[in-house]
Amino acid sequence: GTEIRSILAAFGFRGDDVFKPVRVLSGGERARLSIAKMISNGVSLLVLDEPTNHLDIESREMLESAIKEYDGTLLAVSHDRYFINDLATSILEINREKYPEGFKYFAERYERFVQLRGSDDARYDAKVQVTAGKTDFEESKQRKNRLRSLKTRYAAVEKEISELENRLSAARNDIRLPEIASDFGKLNEIYSACEKYESSIDSLYEELEKLENEISELNE
């Protein structure tokens, strides 16, 4: 009756529009009709998820005008700042990184919310910068400690190589001695020692190369 016609009119359905079958309605018209049906059923809480998405300007304006006539509570999720600015009387901002609880409630209209959030953003950015600075300091400290450790090990490896090369050189000199050359058992023992020295020296040179590369990377 008259009440239904009034609700439809509030949502932009006037004249012959009220006789249109639902299948011929556009996306915006269907969105407005769905909300009109809920309101006509007397609901006290209206929950809308991105209600202005995919609506043209005219449909969005009609939807906003109709919602303003709604007497109940409206809970809307939206990224449309024009829609929020026009209708919202309080705002719940959800941001898991920014707020310890993951959200913050502002009992303010949109313009005031933007001002308050701007203050929060400044504090948040300062906190992030302090944290970043602290993290940079810790990383620098760890890098210096690692560099010091690598250099210490590098010096120890150089010393170990030098000692092994001296032993290898002495063992090779022993092989030339007449008393050793005629003693097959002693000769075998010295050759075995030489092989061990050479193998250890090769491994240490490989380690030395890796240490040089890592030290070079940390110095960059």
Give the tags.
7 helices, about 220 residues, about 65% helix, single chain, 4 strands, mainly alpha
Question: How would you summarize what this structure contains?
Answer:
This protein is mainly α.
Describe this structure in words.
The chain is mainly α and 220 residues long. Helix content is 67%, strand content 8%. It is built from seven helices and four strands, in the order ααβαβαββααα. The protein has helices at residues 2-10, 27-40, 57-68, 81-87, 110-175, 178-181, 184-219, and strands spanning 45-49, 73-77, 91-94, 103-106. The strands form two sheets. A two-stranded parallel sheet has the order 1-2. A two-stranded antiparallel sheet has the order 3-4. β1 (45-49), α3 and β2 form a beta-alpha-beta unit. α2 runs parallel beside α3 (57-68) and α5 packs antiparallel against α7. The longest helix is centred in the middle third of the chain and has 66 residues, at 110-175. It is rod-shaped and about 130 Å long. The two termini are 81 Å apart. The model has no long low-confidence stretch (mean pLDDT 79).
